[in-house]
Amino acid sequence: MSLKGFQFSVVEAAIKKPGRKDLALIYSEAxxxxxxxxxxxxxxxxxxxxxxxxxxxxxxxxxxxxxGNANACTGTQGMVDARETTRLVAAGLGxxxxxxxxxxxxxxxxxxxxxxxxxxxxxxxxxxxxxxxxDLAAAIMTTDTFPKTAVRSGVVNGVGYTIAGxxxxxxxxxxxxxxxxxxxxxxAAVDPVLLTPCFKAAVxxxxxxITIDGDTSTNDTCLLLANGAAGTDTIAADTPEARxxxxxxxxxxxxxxxxxxxxxxxxxxxxEIRITGAASGADAKKAALAVANSSLVKTAFCGQDANWGRxxxxxxxxxxxxxxxxxxxxxxxxxxxxxxxxxxxDAEARGTDVLRNKEFTVTVDLGSGQExxxxxxxxxxxxxxxINADYRT
Amino acid sequence: MSLKGFQFSVVEAAIKKPGRKDLALIYSEAxxxxxxxxxxxxxxxxxxxxxxxxxxxxxxxxxxxxxGNANACTGTQGMVDARETTRLVAAGLGxxxxxxxxxxxxxxxxxxxxxxxxxxxxxxxxxxxxxxxxDLAAAIMTTDTFPKTAVRSGVVNGVGYTIAGxxxxxxxxxxxxxxxxxxxxxxAAVDPVLLTPCFKAAVxxxxxxITIDGDTSTNDTCLLLANGAAGTDTIAADTPEARxxxxxxxxxxxxxxxxxxxxxxxxxxxxEIRITGAASGADAKKAALAVANSSLVKTAFCGQDANWGRxxxxxxxxxxxxxxxxxxxxxxxxxxxxxxxxxxxDAEARGTDVLRNKEFTVTVDLGSGQExxxxxxxxxxxxxxxINADYRT
Lengths: 393, 393
What we know:
2 domains; globular; seven-stranded mixed β-sheet; Ubiquitin-like (UB roll); 15 strands; alpha+beta; homodimer
């Protein structure tokens, strides 16, 4: 990977269990144009409140992130600690506090162990350049089982650039703005006017289209930094280069979002829910999310049970307009139901075969219009219950 | 139980596995004043469509109900079969088809085995008087582990009357009108003007305040028959007798609703979620349902993990107005958090002790007003996954 002008560092600050990296730093050698999307949860973690305040200037140069503790529901002390963390990092780097973003992920409601963070930050800053994006991806994991990164390359006037992203998240995942932590870095120079709308659109098509358990976190943050270190001309809005950049950004975010679902807590199936024939785009998304979040549908996926009736029930209560007599449903290309009733023949056996795969698509036509939406989800398994019944203990 | 003027019958029609009763009949010796509440799911089962059409006249004399097959997503044939079932019952009883209600519960998307129903109905009618309400409660079970009944007695001008109810349901339970099957019978004479509003209010406070898995069924039906056989004066609206009747009806429905949650698929905990300090009643209910439906909260209950942060996260994304700095939370009488942060002291240990009980209350104050709401729910367990991953197989 040839991402220019960014350096990484990771250390063990003893926030998580011994032997696991839990504090990471991203540093851009020059201030970068920045855009971010934060959780819509009304209970926002301290780092979310602080980072949202700072991103307003459209610039950032560093990001410090810890795993193992969410610094959420921590009140005034939480804000003090988030500020102090960025102050220590800014002092070490010799940059303004305002250019330092901060993220936390982990258990809610416990104050940060500031003495450990304070002790670890000098080593974190000193270590810049010693870690890779993969190291960073590993350091931000909580219940994730593998680190998640995605990389694409583009060209502007003959000069190449890179977009590299990382993400974490395996539970408390439900689309409502960015639904986990994701950091996307590019060495392209991008007009700030283009950056934010382009990023928000990409987030909507990726992180806002996945759901594991329907729970929206207090800490979700998705951050994009563009530092221009590749030496490209600045990518301006409404140009072919802008469209290429948007496409590549979409690809990076969608790849990361899919990795999050594949690493869904306890997941054994990756399922793409496609709704067609909806009266509106909003209806399509409502119906897709109802199916993707239904415990009964998700346990049927787990059991490889071609129980399409549960899916019709879910679109029925989703709030979307549906025509019960025109509903149709496919598992991959096997039509299970048409005109609201079972398709007959060998659909049951062939549908069950589809559900034996690790990845498949469920398509539901609502028979009510021309709009569509896609959402990615996973199954609900014993392992999900085990992970979440025992997470803190 | 001294419920007058109603007779019951149950038979084995081979819809469920051998050895299990699966067809039941309730018969009122005289036409009864009737009220009903049906699912809000847009995909409605054939029996729901037919019964809703018929209840408009405000009278019913019989109810035929089968378990093992929902007769949902069965199209025109499903309607034909529902009508034919009631025609056969009406002919056997010598009453008008229009006075026969019909309900089905079980697997979605499979046509009713009409030859078996046709063969079984003469015996069903002939057997009237041979079964008890408990027999009926057992015959309508699907994944339920115990039959559910509740009984109360009242008095009007010195004449006693009885309200007796039964319900079934353990999965696909989520409040949005009646969320399972429930039949409530009274031998009081009740003014039809009183009956429907009184019943709907009772349903809202009971069946519409429980959730097991957030899934709203295609078949939910809650039916009330008042046949006057006790010989009471007719209970008129806005009288002390009406208020007593409403209170007793509330009690019967709430008892049945609580039994459904206690029999929640795989449930090991019965949890009352109380929201206080809400800006509106609607906000209070939204917040209560978000907590009650959160997979992360429900798995924490399962693990007896006093993870109150997940509950704050749930109210935060519920859509209700919350003041993050004034949020407070109790497990029974143990204050876990106040002013948005951990209460400190020995709250963790004492809160964990509460969660070791089979029943407990979670109270969340949103710090935003004076309104409140209560919802009943259960935990999410391995057993829930087992039951629903393997239900059909």
